[in-house]
Amino acid sequence: MDTLADIINQSWSLLRDRQWTNWELLIVAAVATAVLTSVIVKQRRTQLAGTNHSIEGRLAHPPGKYGRREKAREAAEQLEMEYDRIRLLQRQIMTRDQTEARLERDISDLTAANRQLQAELIIVNEQLKRESEQARQPSEKKAAELTTANKQLTQNVAQLTADNKQLQCESKQAGEASEKKAAELTTVNEQLKQEVTQLTADSKQLRRESKQAGESSESEAAKLTTVNEQLKQKVAKLTADNKQLQRESRQAEESSEKKAAKLTTVNEQLKQKVAKLTADNKQLQRESKQAGGGSKKKAAELIAANKQLKREVAKLTAENKQLQNEVAEQAEASSNGMEGRDEKRPSRVKDVVRKVPWRMRVKGRGRLLKGLSNAGNRLMHAGDRARVSQTEDILCTPKSVKAKSPMRLLDELAEEIVDLNTQMGISDGLDAKLEAIQQARDEFDANNNTATVNALRVFINAVQTDQGQDDESLQEHAEDLIDAAQEIAELIATYYV
Residue 48's pLDDT is what? Predict the structure, then answer.
């Protein structure tokens, strides 16, 4: 009443403050006169209908049984509306009982599966411990062998380095000795050259003297011959010494070259052995890492499956609570409507149908159809409820009906991503996308439809970025994931937002 009074005051103040023109005043006057004439005519007709002299069959003569027929029709419509409410509540109670039974069965199955997974996890952990112990024993043996081989190699390397140093020292000493002999040989050659030059000078001087004297004595000739013979002997001795020194230097060079070649071959063999040992060591490290990585992978897969089961149990319990709250609200609304039906009564069956929530959870593959019946627009249930295999979220709108719910499509998309994780190995990108789908599912379960669409768009952008970066695990399935996410987003944006 206060709001109505405020509205009237505001409208009156606007009309009072407005500056009216002539044609607006004429229009208002014409409307007022038309209203007054209609009121006067209606009052005159009612006065004529109330007299005893009205002619039967004329407009002023009202029928006698019209009021009783109208009351009977309204009572019948009211009873039919109440029956429709009762049927709807009975249907909701049946669906709630069915969902409660299904949830109890699912919870029992999930608890059994959880226990089985825990037992399998214990068995797998024991098996992994045994395998790790078995893998450690040969790895320890190989490590001990590698350590001994490394020690032997270090000893061989030390010995070879010592031999190399010794060979270098010997080659240096041989080079120094050959250099000393070459120096001695050069000094002897120089002395020989000096003596030869001196002897040649003496012989020339003797010849000059002989020429000058004209005649040489036999003693001087014998002296000259003896000097020449001595000179020849010295020259032969020096040439022999020179040849011997050359042979010794060549032998020293050949021996040093042989030792150097032997040292290079030994060094190459040593390098090959070191490379082989390093390769064996790397292979052992890879095997140990693979053994540890396989056990970690199995443990991570089991933990992820356990977490998924816990999430499903929490989801089922939340759905059960939500359904119970909806049924309780419907029962309260129906009781309030039965008590105050005289105060506020719907004019048609359509007003009752509008109070029913569009989104309902129906057992089996039945559909909620909105059609026509004898009572007007009515919400009917079609489908075989006896063959119950799973629960589906059914969307019923005035224009269309969808057989699959976004919740089920989100579950299928999450299962597909989990399959990709198990087939191609767990990667961070895929786990992040699984978390995005789980967030969208939680938002839709909490009736946050806009947040659900935004989460799906974030998921699509993440898949597109990974596809642009050539992620091998998502390259083949990226288009399917994007199409599925776009379909769910369009469905929610069209029928839920």
Answer: 53
CA distance 212 to 206: 9
Nearest to 416 by CA among 424, 350, 91, 301: 424
On whether both 144 and 35 belong to a single domain, the answer is no
pLDDT digits (tens, 9 = 90+) for 38-83: 999 888 876 554 545 455 555 555 555 555 677 778 888 889 999 9
pLDDT score of 9: 86
Whole-prediction pTM: 0.24
Residue identified by tokens 């020293």 is 252
pLDDT band per the 50, 70, 90 thresholds, residue 367: very low
Same domain, 278 and 427: no
* CA-to-CA dists, residue 52 to 40, 63, 64, angstroms: 21, 14, 13
Structure tokens at 99: 């969902």
Strands 401-402 and 391-396: antiparallel
Whether 189 maps to a domain, the answer reads: yes
For position 319, what pLDDT does the model report? 66
From the number of C-beta atoms within 10 Å of its C-beta (0-12, 13-18, 19+), residue 157 rates as middle
pLDDT tens per residue, range 293-306: 555 565 566 566 65
169 and 278 within one domain: yes
Contacts of 192 (CB under 8 A, 6+ apart): 234, 235, 238
Phi-psi region of 215 (alpha: psi -120 to 50; beta: other; left: phi over 0): beta
Rounded distance between C-alpha atoms, residue 356 and residue 368, angstroms: 12
Provide the domain count of the chain: 3
Two structure tokens written together for 5: 């009074």
Element of type H or E holding 131: helix 66-213
Q: Can you say whether residue 383 is alpha, beta or left, with left for phi > 0 and alpha for psi between -120 and 50 degrees?
A: left
Query: What does the pLDDT look like over 15-34, one tens digit per residue?
Result: 778 777 888 889 989 999 99
* DSSP character string of 421-473: HHHH---HHHHHHHHHHHHHHHHHHTT-HHHHHHHHHHHHHHHHHHHHTT-HH
Q: What is the per-residue pLDDT for 451?
A: 87
- How many Å apart are CA 50 and CA 351, to the nearest integer? 36
The verdict on residue 365 lying in a domain is no
- Picking from 244, 271, 293, the residue at the C-terminal end of a domain is 293
Q: How many CB atoms lie within 10 A of CB 391?
A: 21
The parent domain of residue 142 ranges over 134-293
- Rounded to the nearest angstrom, the gap between the alpha carbon of residue 298 and the centroid of all alpha carbons in its chain is 18
Check residue 105 and give its pLDDT.
92
